[in-house]
Amino acid sequence: MTNALAQWFASNLGKVMPAELVVFIVSLFPILECRGGLVVAALLGVKLWVAVPICVFGNVLPVPFILLLLKKFLRWMKKTPLHRFAEWIEERGQRKSNGMKYGEFWGLLLFVGIPLPGTGAWTGSLVATILDMDWKKAIVPILLGVLMATVIMTVFSYAFLANVVG
Questions:
Q1: Staple partner for 133: which of 37, 112, 138, 152, CB 3.0–4.6 Å?
Q2: Residue 143: other Cβ atoms inside 10 A
Q3: Are 67 and 139 a contacting pair, CB within 8 Å?
């Protein structure tokens, strides 16, 4: 699904705005994050040394806001007609947090860093919030996880995908 979305962004937005901006926008989105951003960058021919910092910055930009404001936002949502959506978000975070077998730091690092569907900085921040982790303790494994996922996806996007597409 990530690759299909990334290809859609590349083929549609890549025609109307600079490739670097498309890469940044895709990296901001949950589900896509830097994984999708790197695929889009490879598809649009953005140089590796340009794409990686854009993707990492776009991916980590929402993290402090999620860690600091999500609980307050969910409490507010529960008082609105969106209460079921807020409950769904909390349940999703709780389900994802059950997989943290190696302790909070290593569990969060591996959860964010291994690029699998449903993992990443957005969901990792959600999990850290649901687990009531201090944001200062959560930010390091999330940032390291983003870097780990970036390395993995850079190899995939620029080595494998470039050979398939190019």
A1: 138
A2: 17
A3: yes
CA angle 7, 148, 106 (to 5 degrees): 130
The pair of three-digit structure tokens given for residue 73, joined into one six-digit string:
């936002």
Residue at 21: amino acid letter: L
Amino acid at position 103, single letter = G
Residue with tokens 């690029």: 115
How confident is the model over 115-127, as pLDDT tens digits? Answer: 888 889 999 999 8
SS3 116: coil
- Please provide the average confidence, as pLDDT, over all residues in the chain: 88
Residue 43 clears pLDDT 70, i.e. is over it? yes
Task: Give the pTM.
Answer: 0.83
End-to-end Cα separation, the chain, in angstroms: 21
Buried b (16+ CB within 10 A) or exposed e, 109-130: bbbbbebeeebbbbbbbbbbbb
| Residues ≥6 apart with Cβ < 8 Å to 95 | none
Token pair for residue 46?
Answer: 């953005």
